Amino acid sequence: MFLHIGGDVMIPMKDMIGVIDLSRQDSPINLEFLKTADEEGFVVQLTGKPASLVICTKQVYLSPISTQTLQKRARRSFEQTE
User: Is the full-model pTM beyond 0.90?
Assistant: First the structure.
């Protein structure tokens, strides 16, 4: 199963570790994680203003799609396979 996270990017759901809502940018842990990932070259900026941070096994994506929408898409993907 794949999840469309914005732009032309679809990721295998098995590679997804987590999704963080970027509207809560006051979290120092999230900011430190994002800074470190960017410095190490793991961050991929998708089109549009970032709304969520999608953490995968090899990349970190800044997605313009909200965490709620990504959650709904993932849930639908699981329901379709049952």
Answer: no
What's the chain's length in residues?
Answer: 82
| pLDDT for the residue 11 | 95
Sign of the alpha-carbon dihedral angle for 13, 77, 82, 17: positive
For the chain, what are the domain ranges? 2-81
For the chain, residues with pLDDT lower than 50 are none
> Does residue 53 contact residue 6 with C-beta atoms inside 8 Å?
no
At 58, give phi and psi (nearest 5°): -120, -15
C-alpha–C-alpha distance, residues 48 and 72, integer Å: 20
